[in-house]
TrEMBL record:
Listed transmembrane segments: 6-25, 46-67, 73-92, 117-136, 142-162
Membrane association type: Multi-pass membrane protein
Organism of origin: Niveispirillum lacus
Name of the protein this chain belongs to: Methylamine utilization protein MauE
Protein's pathway: One-carbon metabolism; methylamine degradation
Keyword Ribosomal protein: no
Job of this protein: May be specifically involved in the processing, transport, and/or maturation of the MADH beta-subunit.
GO cellular component, one term: membrane
């Protein structure tokens, strides 16, 4: 069954906004980003800053192309999957007391959580759905644009609320 074009547009615009905000977040606190990448202990320390720069470039490409190119949706899905894998790998080896680098919501209490893996997997799945599933051939009308203008801020607020909830300490956890 083909996707409604509004759903496809919401996913694409949402991913574009997410990655644009992620780039802004990284550039705003650039000196710290290399240390965040290094905290994952997946690379030799000398590569942390160059990989951080590469991630910013890739996120910028994902943000800039999400509405225009299927390649950008593949890139979005790849980045989100890589982030989920990096977080999951660190959780499995007990390296969870690090900053995830996720748009700053966890800046007060840096800690990796399985909910971050799930979040990134769901977002990657949405990106893949938007690129792989055919879109219904119908013209957009005024109510579609109104829907887009209502859904995007609502989705952004929901994302922010979920990110804030993820960063809260677990019940019974030491402060």
């Amino acid at each position: 069954m083909p996707l409604d074009p509004v759903f496809s547009l919401v996913v694409k615009a949402g991913l574009a906004l997410l990655f644009a905000f992620a780039v802004w977040h990284k550039l705003r606190d650039w000196p710290r980003i290399g240390a965040v990448v290094g905290g994952y202990r997946l690379l030799p320390p000398a590569l942390s800053q160059p990989v951080a720069a590469l991630l910013v470039v890739l996120e910028l490409a994902a943000a800039g192309g999400a509405l225009l190119s299927p390649s950008a949706l593949w890139l979005s899905a790849g980045l989100l999957s890589a982030y989920a894998a990096a977080i999951g790998f660190n959780l499995l080896r007990g390296n969870d007391q690090i900053d995830c680098g996720c748009i700053g919501f966890a800046a007060v209490r840096p800690r990796l959580r399985w909910t971050m893996v799930i979040r990134n997997a769901v977002l990657a799945a949405l990106a893949l759905l938007a690129v792989l599933q055919p879109v219904a051939d119908r013209s957009l009308v005024w109510i579609d644009y109104l829907t887009l203008l209502a859904v995007l801020p609502g989705a952004a607020l929901l994302y922010a609320a979920l990110e804030t909830a993820i960063s809260l300490p677990s019940r019974g956890a030491a402060s």
